[in-house]
Structure formats: C-alpha cells, structure tokens
Amino acid sequence: MTDDPPTGQDNVPDPEEVVQRHERQLDAALAEVEDPTPSTDESLDLELPGLELHRRDFVKAGAATGAVAGLAGCSGGLLGDGAENGNDGGGSANTDYHVPPGEKDTYYGFWSGGHSGEVRVVGVPSMREIRRIPVFQKEGGVGYGHDEKTKQVLEEGGDVGSVAGHEWGDSHHPVLSETDGDYDGRWLFINDKGSGRVARIDLKYFETDAITDIPNMQACHGMAVQSPDTEYVYGVGEFRVPIPNDGTDYDDPDDYWSVFAALDPETMAVEWQVRIDGNLDNADTGKDGEWAFATGYNKEHAVGPQGMTHDDRDFLKAFNIPAIEAAVEAGNYEEVNGVPVVDGRQDSDLNRGDDPVVKYVPTPKSPHGCDVEPEGRYVTASGKLSPTVTVVDIEELASTSDPAEAIVGQPKVGLGPLHTTFDDRGNAYTTLFIDSQVAKWDIEDAVEAEKGSTDPVTGKVDVHYNPGHLQAVESETTDPAGDWLISLNKLSKDRFLSTGPIHPDNDQLIDISEDASSSETGGMELVADHPVHPEPHDCVVTHRDKIDPNDVWDREDYEGEKPFVTQDASGIERTGEQSVEVQMSSSRSQFGLQEFTVQEGDEVSLTVTNVEDVRDIIHGLAIPQYGINLAIAPQDTRQVTFEASESGVYWVYCTFFCSALHLEMRSRMIVEPRDG
Ligand code: RUQ
Ligand code: CUA
Known about the structure:
Blueprint: H1 15-34, H2 55-58, H3 64-71, E1 107-112, E2 118-124, E3 129-134, H4 148-156, E4 175-179, E5 182-192, E6 197-202, E7 207-213, E8 218-225, E9 233-239, E10 259-263, E11 270-275, E12 283-285, E13 291-296, H5 305-308, E14 313-320, H6 321-329, E15 334-336, E16 339-343, E17 358-364, E18 370-372, E19 378-382, E20 389-393, H7 394-399, E21 407-409, E22 417-422, E23 427-432, E24 437-442, H8 443-448, E25 457-462, E26 467-472, E27 484-489, E28 505-511, E29 525-532, E30 539-543, E31 571-576, E32 579-587, E33 590-591, E34 595-599, E35 603-610, E36 619-623, E37 628-632, E38 637-643, E39 648-653, E40 666-672
Parallel strand pairs: 11-16, 32-35, 34-40
Antiparallel strand pairs: 1-2, 1-30, 2-3, 4-5, 5-6, 6-7, 8-9, 9-10, 10-11, 12-13, 13-14, 14-17, 15-16, 18-19, 19-20, 20-21, 22-23, 23-24, 24-25, 26-27, 27-28, 28-29, 31-32, 32-33, 35-38, 36-37, 39-40
The structure holds (dicuprio-$l^{3}-sulfanyl)-sulfanyl-copper and dinuclear copper ion.
C-alpha cells in the first residue's frame, strides 16, 4: 500500500494477488471500526463511512473476494453458487403482472443488448420481448445494414479505427429523450462501450437513424440526456488513451485522456468535450439543465487494477454546463480532431475561479452508478467497493468552494452497491452485487442520519443473482410511476433449464407499489423471472402513452433519390454500358416485375417500394446469391446496389410470409452472359 501506483506494463498484477490485497483492504477497513483514524489518503478531508460490518458479511457465500475483484472493472465476478438465496417475499401488492392474450402492456421497456449491439423492446409488466432493434451491427431479420440507407448509418458511425471497423458494438445504457423532464417518445439514445460511439433510434419507426463516432474517445461507457429538455446528449469516455493514439507517445499514462462529450441531439454532432482526471464511468444530469454528473475511478492514472484501486478515494465529477459553454464561447479550449476540448482537469486554470467547469466531489474509491433523484435535489454515487451510497446536495454543491461539504448523506446499504433508481414516494433502490439483493432506502432519512448508518434502509429483497443495473418505471423523469422495478441480474445459475455452459442473464420483476415497514423487504415483492440473451446492462421504461410509433411509413420521410415505385412505374432502364436501374413495387402477392434481365458484370441499382398501406404487411426481397436481403414495411422504399457478376438464373423471393400466395411471390433475375 506504500508503493507508487504501478503504471508500467511490466507490472500487471496476478489476479490472485489482487484478491488477496482486497482481503487485506477489507481487514484494514474492519480495523478502522475499532480505531477510526483517518484514511491513508489524508489529502481529502472526508468523513469515512462507518464500517461496522462483520468479517463473515464480507465473505457471504464464500465468494465475496472474487466478486470484489470482479467489481473493480465493472465486469462479472467469480462467484460461489449462491444457493442460499431465496425469495422471502413480502406483502402481496399488485401481482397482476400477467397480461392476458389480446391485452397489451402498460409500459414500453427498452433494454440494451450488450455486445449483441442491439436494443430490445420489452413489454412491462409481462416482460414479453416485443422486438429487437439492431443498432451497432448488421442484422438479417429486418435487413438492417443491407439497404443503402441503413448501410450508410452504420458506415458513417463506423470509422472507429482500422482495427474494429463496424462489425459490432457493446450497447449499455439506453436513455429516452425528454421534454419538460418527462419522456417525450421522440428518440432513444444508446452508447457503445466497445468504441466511443453513440447511436440514436427514431421512435417514430423504431429504427436506428444515426451513429456518431466520438473523436478522442475509446469506450463510451456512461450515457445521459440533459434534463429537462434534451439540450445535450452526453457520451462519457471510460478508457484513457493517448491523443493522438497513433503510437507516437504511448507510454506516459499520465498523459492519457478521457473525455466527457456533449452531442447535439438533432444533428448528433459533437459540440464540445471536457478532458478530466481519471476514468469516467456512469452519468446522469440535474433537472434544471445546469449540471451533469459522472462517477469515475482511477484517479491514480494507472493501467492495471492494482494501481487503479490504490487510493481510498475517487471522485464524482460535476460538470458545470453554463461554465463549460462560456469557456467554449470565449475560445478557452484546445481544438483536437475537430472538437473543442475544454480542460476540466483538477489543476486546470478553468477550475480555479468562482465558477469552475468541473467540481470534483471526493467519494470512497471507484464509485459506480450515478443517479439523480426525481426532484433533482440530490445526486447519488453508488459505492461499488464501499458498502455506501454517497448523497450529494446539488444546490449546495453549486454554491460551495469545498465540494466535500455538499455530501449530505452516506447510508450504508450493503455489499457491492452498483446502481440506484427511484419511485415517486421518496424511496431509492440500490442493487447490491455481492449480497445479491436490492436494498430500499429512504432518501430524506439518509440525509438526516449519520453517515454510514444503516437506519435509512427500510428493506431488502433477494435477487438471483448478482444484480448490476436496476430500473424503476419512469425513474428518470420528475414523476416516476412507482409501481414496478426490474433488477437486471448478471447471473442466473440455477433459475432456468440448463442450456449448457453459457447461461442467460435473469431479469426479475419486483412489485414496489407498496411501502411496508413491517416486512423484511419493505414491501418489495419479487414476482417473476425472465431469462435474457447476453448481455443486457440497463433498461429504461416509459408509459405506453408517451410513445406513438407509425404503423406505416410517411412518404415524406423517405430520403432516397429514387421516387416511390408504383406497380405501373416498375421497370428496368439501362443507364450506362455496365449499369442498369431496376425499379419494382411489391404487394400481396407479387413484385412489380415478374422477371428482369441484366448483363453479366452490370452494376444493378435496385429500388423496391412496398405499396401496401395495411399495417403489418411487410415484404422482403432476397437474392441470396448476391447477398441481397431487404425488408420493406408498408409505404417504405429501400434501395441496394450490387454487381451481377455471374450469368445465370436467380430467383428473387419475398422473405416475409405475407399471404397465402407468399411462396409464389417471386421474380426471376436473368443475368445474360455479356458476350454470349
Ligand atoms: S455500468 S452494471 Cu457498466 Cu452499466 Cu453498471
Ligand atoms: Cu410478400 Cu411474402
């Protein structure tokens, strides 16, 4: 503990050793209970949370040390089998989560799909998966990345370096656009933790319509929109990298960068960035447009877990939006790769005056979740490696010159607090990764109580197992619904039929509609298990009345060059020595052309319109030998261009079972030998 934090690459710690070191740290923390002398990092004058936990609490299920090691980097831990967990239930509240055939869910949920790179639409409370929306990778079912329009979306957002290309992404944190502090149903934004990207889904069509590759950023982890009116979309850089990252200056980790980026929600252009000290993790914003927050770890600027967790403190960073905008306006920035980068590091000149661009609030080391409660009064940083949640008064933070003074509460909630969510009755709910529980606590009680007190905790419910995110319905608005909560559990272990060594995750639905102080769970009742494909991270849930998608396409939204193709307009036109244009309508149960003939080597530009205006009648168009796979919804037009490289007969078929004559819905492409 007295060595300098290791930063060189020849000092990669042995995982065993890291685990042992964490054990020693836990021992030290326990010793502090008897002897509450200041922490090893005396530069920060912050009260230590009380740590009167017993040793056996830390090693619950014999696995906590492994879990702590896993936690250091936001990944799953090595865990014991957790068989002691069971639902102890609570007072029965509204258990009507079953949605009968023909009825619809009350809420739309949007789930990130992790390294599947997609977003999933899930009905709540039934938890039925309604649709998958491909975002960061090509997908066959809806032809995403196959037609020119969606191909372009992927390509424009795909310049992530010659190594990765745009093969896949790691979607983590879906956030909904807001108007007046409420979800407005216009867009959903999602980050790519795999590279520094942010995507936008147009909720009129539930289709990804833009991806931005954020310069100066590797790994965009946190994601938020500025409340109350989506003034900005924030992408939060996690990994620190050299800028430029071209191999010229790679071995000075003190000069690696991580940035907080603000995008314009309309144009998806990066407006500005703030360079900060340490890594960034999760983000949220205040409710008045003035502040954004991000947790962070690795203030040590290390490159390995040992160094990253060396000190006892890290920071919650508070971004002062008007001050940042003023700095940009005044030209107080460095332009890097086309983006104004404001210096928000601790020793920056811009942080010296009365109106610093970034305030660094000291917290226990490696805080994780960053969540602002519905009234916008407090921001919480969930402890991860500390059993506490740090509660910061935003107004006080704005006025104080010592950010530590704005810490007004630090309830001790349990082991491995990762994320916090809220209801409309002043309760907060925090996932406990190591304890495999959700803890419920009272926000105002936490502010009243001594720091480190367990008194504000009003109940705990077991979940199965090792929860990461959790989300209460409409929790990010100023008026949450307060009826359902979903715990997104990283491991499912014994909860489902085995499918071999790779298990699904387990999303559990918890009824939170009642407060019951007499019950152990505080009224929370776990009502259902739902397996999910690897690996959702987070979700956001809105009332269905706030989303109003189209049933068919509006023709005026079509942006391609070619017009809407009617049956009469179907035809083929030679546009050059080796190029042809083919235009086709599709409807039940025929294409506008029964056959068409091109020459070997022709560049074929194919435009297809679905002329139906009936909801849910989708036609596909596939020419498998040429890799063509379009999905065309009613009133939509899609295009694709390919080279007819080999002569022969190729059947063009419809991929959606659209009518009794679906199998007959075909066209015949004849590719004539060029000199035949
Ligand atoms: S952050 S599990 Cu990687 Cu979504 Cu907390
Ligand atoms: Cu159109 Cu099948």
